[in-house]
Design a protein that fits this description.
2 copies of one chain form a homodimer. By secondary structure, chain A is an alpha+beta fold. Chain A folds into 3 domains: 61 residues, Transferase, Pyrimidine Nucleoside Phosphorylase, Chain C (Transferase, Pyrimidine Nucleoside Phosphorylase, Chain A, domain 3); 248 residues, Nucleoside phosphorylase/phosphoribosyltransferase catalytic domain (Pyrimidine Nucleoside Phosphorylase, Chain A, domain 2, 3-Layer(aba) Sandwich); 86 residues, Alpha-Beta Complex (Aldehyde Oxidoreductase, domain 3). Helices cover 45% and strands 16% of the residues of chain A. The first copy, chain A, has a 5-stranded mixed β-sheet with strand order 1-4-5-13-14, with helices on both faces. In chain A, β13 and β14 form a beta hairpin. In chain A, α1 packs parallel to α3 and α9 runs parallel beside α10. The radius of gyration of chain A is 22 Å and the shape is globular.
């Protein structure tokens, strides 16, 4: 293998063979190919892409660089949900216990906040004592015992992906659909899933700005899933405004608990139910999405979903009492209402401004070594299209001091626009993509 | 400076400011920007290019990373000649002493063989004792004393270019016109030239396969020259066959001496005179190219050019007697004639096959640490278009053993094609490019 010749071929629009990709990724994971050659290849891939066979070879090579969860003795369907990242998106916190309470194993591997988006691990860690750093063996055992574990990507899983991702982040080669698809799917196949539901975010708060890219990502991941006995269903959902009301780690856990108790904001409930219905149909627990919704409603009304969340929290060392008494979650020192500066119709609630705002209040990281304040953030009841009176409460800022409150109000002022006409918002759930094709909803 | 943002901007087709390029290259030369980020940027530049201002900023940043020759107290014009690399091209060996013998300083910095092409340093080192590794101070002193020094790129000159070039070589980002132009011109401006003549090779044996690319390289280097008080004139010359007859280090030195004595093959004489005439006009030594040719002929006939070559060789520790007695140059143990396998018209003499052939006989490197056998190579009198009889001597192989002779004959058999019609060869000198524009010759 002469690496510059492989880079050259991809640079000139040619294809790499599966054998070449496998040898290259394996050598890279073993530190035998230098970062600079891989960086040049990644940029060539940015321009010239990878075809389906190349993408699959990349995914398999990354998968083989590490261990997998072993569920060969677990007779349950195993379903995970993955989102491309958003603001206010706490559906994972709801779906993991909800779906696990219905006899489906949910080995959920999540990430931390990235860019302006929040991360499930950061949210879970706002529960006092909650430990997300499970080993592969601990996760396997917990899934076998209580049907669910919520953990971070361990050292053992797809190390080549971790190394490649860090390089992509440093070389402006993150936004490449086949690389994104192979990266996500390598982790999901390593979880030994029997099905995956994908939530692809659309709009100003999402990573992929064009519908065609979002559909292509869905198709690419579905293709990889088909090749590895892991059927994938993707929903395209709106991220031109935050999902639900709470934005900030502990605030989002509290809102997730609300939904598990039968409450919560309608948009959050609808996206959660739509994703959950796909999970249950993939699991074979329900034959139709309508039936799946009914089963989920029962699990919520009966309290079983909430109990499962308590069980997961307790199993991972967290204070399970937060579920019954969310006031035990970290609380910010100060809260302040934000009223509408004028009467009119809410035009936009900018998710990037809100996401970056949470970080600037201390609720996220600008560097990996930053510590996160779980209590701060926003609760924004205003939604685009809502008619509001002057002074009407649109949101609350949660901050630790007056400086934070002032900053938070300024962020809301710039993020929430009020006008006079009906705004053009994206439909909450616009497309459903399966191996059979794309349905516009 | 956030490097991934700069990579991203270039990736997306934007421009980098001169300040950004300067900061980036300076940090890279100081090992403060990692190779992998530079590699990703280089590949983005491969796809999206650099405009003239970016290219100039890159050149200036590389220039400022090191030292320059200081000729502030030398009242002579200083002219160099640079070729993009070919097979059988020994014009530098002739021009340096010839032009220096006419009162023009020639601080000539050359390279080693690269790919299938030969290198002036390797050729000079076939002269017993010749030392090409002059320091900057030694080169300056020698140019002041005898008007000419022939040296390799020193450690002190444009270290950023050396580091970048090694990275480009390992990441398939060599063939990028603004990077080539900035790399060459950074070295030439560091030589403190008052003019530069560029020999851009065309055809199957050249690095740039398309005429438009060759003209663009000429224009780019002319533009950089204009910005740094170093006027550049470029000639586009044929490299669809070797230049002259000798291909191999000592064989080429012998042929260069032939030309300095008034002999040598007509094509080599013509290219040398054309390049030399441009050098003398740039120097102000002659007002027209015709007058310059007459002056050069005088320098050859009078023996002054040859004496200057003896002087340069002696100054750099070499055995100057090779000039009067070329049999003192290294000789191969065996020589063998190659006769035409059939009657007809010579169609092609493939320069890449011949260049790689010299390497395979031991006359070049496949790895940097290889030692070069100066004596081996080919002397090929056959030129495309020549009518030959069966068995007529077309070439000689110079090799150290029977195995080398057999290999050399096989190389000639595959490199020299004989047919029946007149071949389509490139004109020996096809274009002349100056700041005023392109003249087709």
């Amino acid at each position: 293998m002469i690496v510059p010749r492989l880079i050259e071929r991809k640079r000139d629009g040619g294809q790499l063979t599966s054998g070449e990709i496998h040898e290259l990724v394996t050598a890279y994971a073993d530190d035998k190919v230098p970062d600079y050659q891989m960086a040049a290849l990644l940029m060539a891939i940015y321009f010239n892409g990878l075809d389906r066979a190349e993408m699959n070879a990349l995914m398999e090579a990354m998968l083989e660089s590490g261990e997998r969860l072993d569920f060969s003795r677990l007779p349950l369907p195993r379903i995970d949900k993955h989102s491309t990242g958003g603001v206010g998106d706490k559906t994972s916190l709801i779906l993991a216990p909800l779906i696990a309470s219905l006899g489906v194993a949910v080995p959920m591997m999540s990430g931390r906040g990235l860019g302006h988006t929040g991360g499930t691990l950061d949210k879970l860690e706002s529960i006092p004592g909650f430990r997300t750093g499970l080993s592969l063996a601990e996760a396997q055992k917990q899934v076998a015992e209580i049907g669910c574990a919520m953990l971070g990507q361990t050292e053992e899983i797809v190390p080549a992906d971790r190394k490649l991702y860090a390089l992509r982040d440093a070389t402006a080669t993150v936004e490449v659909i086949p690389l994104i698809a192979a990266s996500i799917m390598s982790k999901k196949v390593a979880e030994s899933l029997t099905g995956l539901v994908l939530d692809i975010k659309r709009g100003s708060g999402s990573f992929l700005p064009h519908l065609e890219d979002e559909l292509e990502l869905a198709r690419a991941m579905i293709d990889l899933g088909v090749r590895h006995a892991c059927p994938v269903v993707a929903l395209l959902t709106a991220m031109d405004r935050p999902l639900g009301e709470a934005c900030g780690n502990a605030l989002e856990v509290a809102e997730a608990i609300d939904v598990l108790k039968g409450g919560g904001p309608p948009d959050l409930i609808e996206v959660t139910m739509a994703l959950g219905a796909e999970m249950l149909v993939l699991a074979g627990t329900a034959t139709t999405r309508e039936a799946a919704r009914a089963i989920m409603r029962d699990a919520i009304i009966s309290g079983r979903a909430l109990e499962k969340f308590e069980e997961v929290i307790a199993a991972q060392g967290g204070e399970a009492r937060v579920v019954r008494d969310p006031s035990r979650l970290p609380q910010s020192a100060l809260q302040k209402q934000f009223g509408a500066p004028r009467a009119g119709i809410v035009q936009t609630v900018d998710p990037r401004a809100i996401g970056h705002g949470v970080i600037s209040l201390g609720g996220g990281r600008t560097r990996m070594e930053d510590t996160v304040d779980p209590s701060v953030g926003f609760v924004i009841s205003a939604k685009p299209g809502a008619r509001v009176e002057k002074g009407q409460r649109l949101a609350d800022v949660h901050a630790q001091d007056e400086k934070g409150i002032t900053a938070g109000i300024a962020i809301l002022e710039s993020a929430i626009a009020i006008g006079d006409s009906a705004p053009a918002s994206l439909p909450l759930i616009s497309h459903r993509v399966t191996a059979k094709g794309v349905e516009e909803l």
